[in-house]
C-alpha cells in the first residue's frame, strides 16, 4: 500500500480468505502515519478502509480489484470534484453561485473554504450531486469521499473550535413576560402589551433581528410601570373593565353564532357547556362585577346590546383568578332546526315563550353564583332558536369598595423584610433590591449595580413612603439593560478573536433561556454562583430537572410552535363553504394534538423517530370524528394508540400540519413538500424564480387534479429542478384535504398518491413517505438538531457549527435518537459552551 504522497492510487483487492489480514495490515500502516499537512490523505485511507470493510469481508466473491482514490498533494483538487463537479461549479459557469476552482485537499488542514466544503458534503451525502442526469461516481468512491470530507472537517473543528460571533441579545417579548412572571411571582402575561418581534432563521429569539428603538423602550417603560404597581399592590383604586372575547365561530347563514352542548374549557365546572374562562388579576381585596354578553341568535351578533348583558357581583381576594361563565349541559337537547329565510317580512319567530336557563359564574373552577337568563331574546332584528344561549364575551369590572391589598405571591416575593422603624428602611430596601437584582440580572450584584437602584428608591421614598420607593426600584430593574439583555462580558485584557469557555453564570442563563425561555431559578443560579454547574454530571442532572418542570412547556410553545408552524394555525381560514365542518373546536383540538404530542416526546424522552412514525397520538371526540376514528367520547384530549390502518401517526398524519401547509380552499403539494424539506430534512430548495405563473386549475373546461396542474407547471425548466424534489413528497399526502381529513378523490377523480424520488425510489401515500423518511433517519436527526441548535444559540447556524451537529447526531443515534440526548448534546457542545472574545 502506498500513501498519496508516493504517487499511484491505493488498490485494494477482494480475495478469498485474505480480507481480515489485509485490513489488519492496512490499519496498522495508516494508524502509524504522523500528523502533517497531508493528513487528509491519511484520513482518506482510513475512511476507505471503513467504507469497504464489509465488502472485503465477503470471501465468497470472485477476485475483483477495488480502486479507492488517494489525493496526490495538499494543493491538488480532489479528483471526484474535478471529474464530476467542476464542469458546472467553476469560476466561469458558477452554477448555483458555487465555484470549486479554489478548493484544495489542504483546505481541511488549514480551515479554508469550510463553507464550500460543507455544501459539497451535504449535497454529495444526500445524493443530489452530481445530478442524476450526469455521470456518477461509484457508490464506494462516493462513500469514501464523504467519509474523508466529514472526518477532515470534524478533525479541524475539534482542534480549532469556533463558537461564532456572539451578539448581545435582547429578550423577546415572550421571554420578557416569562422573566417578569418568574422574577416577581406575578401570574400576568404582559407579552401582548409589547410589539411583536421580528423572526430570523425561523425563530423570533434571534439576536440579529431583535432590534431596539425609542418606541420599543417607551413600551418597556410603560409595561414596567404597570408590572411594578401590580406586583407591589400599589396600583390605582380606580374601577376599570377588563374584557375577554370567547373564541367562537362566526354566524352561520345569518342564523346566529353556534353553541355546543359540551364543556368549553377544562377551567369550567364539570357538567357545564358553552361559555368560557380566562385569567384575571384582582388588584385588591374587593368586590368585582362579572358580566357576560350573550348571543341573541340574531342576524348580526357583532353588536353588544344592553339587553344581552348579564352581570353579578362577587368578592375576590387580590391576586390571579380564573373567571368563568357557563351554562349547564343538557341531557336531552332539542335538536330541531328553525327554517331561515333572508326576508324580514317572512321570518318565523319562536312561538313558545322563552324558558329560564341557569348560568353559572365560577372562580378558580368553583361555582360561586348562578343567575337565570332567558333562553332567547326577541329583538327588532328578530330572533332564531337554532343555537342554545351562549357567552360571547366576559367583562370584569372593579374594584368596588376595595379593602386593601391582601397577601399575594408577588408581595411575598418582593417584601422579604419589613422595617419596623424609619432608621431600618434603607437597610431593608437594600436587601429587597439586592435580592431582586440578583435574580433579574442572573448573577451576584455589587455596589455598582445597587447604587443607581437605591438612588431611585431614595428619590421616590422622599416623596411618598417605603413601599412606593420599592415599587420605583422594581420598575428600574425591569428596564435595566442588565435585565433586558443577555450580556456575556469578556475578561479585561482578553485578545480579540480568542475563544474562551463560558462562566457558570453565563452558561446558566443560556440554559434557562433555552429550556424555559426565562431566567434561572434559585437552584440553577446557586449552582452557578458556587462554580458547581460545569462539574461532571451536574449539568445533565439540571437538564433533566428543568425538562420535568412545567416551565419547559416553553420548548413546546416557542420552539415547536415555530418549527412546526403551529403559530400559523390561528391565521388559517379554511373556506367554510367547502369545509363546513371546520370550526373553533376542531382548530383548538388540532393545535392541542400536536402540542401534547411534542410535549409527550420531550417529557418521556422518546425517540425523535416518533415525529415520523409514532403509533400513538392525542385525540378528543371532535378530532377523532374528523379522523374517522371511533370509540372516543368527550372533550378531553387523551393518548390514543393508533390502528395501522388509520392513515395517521407522526407529525405528517396530524391535521394541524396538514392544514398550515394548505390553502384555504385546496391542498398544496408544493407547500407540503417544501415543509418536509425545510423542517424534516434541512434541505430547503432555493427561492422560486420571479414571475412564476399560477397553477392552471382547468384545461379544456375540465378541472385538473393537483398532479395534473403540477405536470403542466413542471414543463418549465426553471421550475422543474426544485419541483422534482418537493412534489413527490407533497403528492404522497394528497389523500389528506386542506383541513387534514382523509379523502379518496380530488376534482371528482381518484387520487394518485404514488411518487418517485429523484434517485428513482418509488413509494406511495403516507406509509410510503414514512419509510422514505425513516431510511434517512440520520438526515432527519441532523435536521432536527440543526433547528434546535439555532433556537438554543439564538443565531443562524453555519459551516463552523456542522461538525458539532454531526457529533450530537451520532451520539443520539447511539442512544436510539432520544430527544433529551440531543438536548444534552447541544448544551455540552462547543457552540453552546464557548464564546469568541471581542477584546477589551
From TrEMBL:
Domain DUF1595: 428-488
Every DUF1588 domain range: 648-746
Residue ranges occupied by any DUF1592 domain in the UniProt entry: 502-629
Domain DUF1587: 169-231
Domain DUF1585 stretches: 759-832
Protein name as catalogued: Cytochrome c domain-containing protein
